[in-house]
Amino acid sequence: xxxxxxxxxxxxxxxxxxxxxxxxxxxxxxxxxxxxxxxxxxxxxxxxxxxxxxxxxxxxxxxxxxxxxxxxxxxxxxxxxxxxxxxxxxxxxxxxxxxxxxxxxxxxxxxxxxxxxxxxxxxxxxxxxxxxxxxxxxxxxxxxxxxxxxxxxxxxxxxxxxxxxxxxxxxxxxxxxxxxxxxx
Length: 184
Known about the structure:
Elements: E1 5-12, E2 15-22, H1 26-38, H2 44-125, H3 128-144, E3 146-151, E4 156-162, E5 170-176
Helix pairs in contact: 1-2
């Protein structure tokens, strides 16, 4: 006999009668109660005791049912919490995606801006006035013994001064020319 059954002892004077009923099946409990009522050897006191025992067992069954209900409620809460966490993660992922998309847009904007500047810069470099000015500058630098390294932004030019005594050592000279002096 498995653990789901419990013994209920019915004392009738000096006699002891034993009956077994299921703690999990209410049908078995009701059948057992009917047998107690039909049995004339058991007096009302014993029947009352048996009724109390069955009621006690029913209380235990109800308690276990409530426990199961609480477990179900707890599980539902847990599922709800998990759903909330998953939603929060989805929101975080969506925010991260938006941030990445924003960064990509900014990068694309910078690339477009850079390309636009490059085109404008090429146009400026190809302008006759600038070409003429650069030619004059190169002539002036050759007289001073300077070599142009590169043309930077904002009319900043870097030169290497050629050292006649020690050719390996070159002094870097930075010359800042303002836009309004291009005409000179």
